[in-house]
Amino acid sequence: MTGVGWFMAIVLGGIAGWIAEQLMKSDMGVIMNIVLGIVGAIVMNAILGAIGIPASGGWIIQCLVAVVGACLLIFLYRMIRGRTA
């Protein structure tokens, strides 16, 4: 999460993970929501950077990137492990 501090990364990760959990109809828990949000943001920032789209901006942009990344991670987890997540 470029442009935000560690504390804000945790807060945004929790919010993004919770939103992704609601969108994907998943039940992960608070800690996993934070992890999904932060890792999702890292993954999506890397993907966007690799295709040449800068994801720089404020915390709203980073939250959207984190939500999309967390949804992607939930989707990939379901593909590997099944629909129970």
From TrEMBL:
Concerning InterPro entries, the annotation shows: Transgly_assoc (IPR007341)
Which Pfam family is an annotated match for this chain, by its short name? Transgly_assoc
| Presence of the UniProt keyword Transmembrane in the record | yes
Any one Gene Ontology cellular component term annotated for this protein: plasma membrane
Superkingdom assignment: Bacteria
| Chief site of localization | membrane
Compartments where found: Cell membrane
Q: Which PANTHER family match?
A: UPF0410 PROTEIN YMGE
Q: What is this protein called?
A: Membrane protein
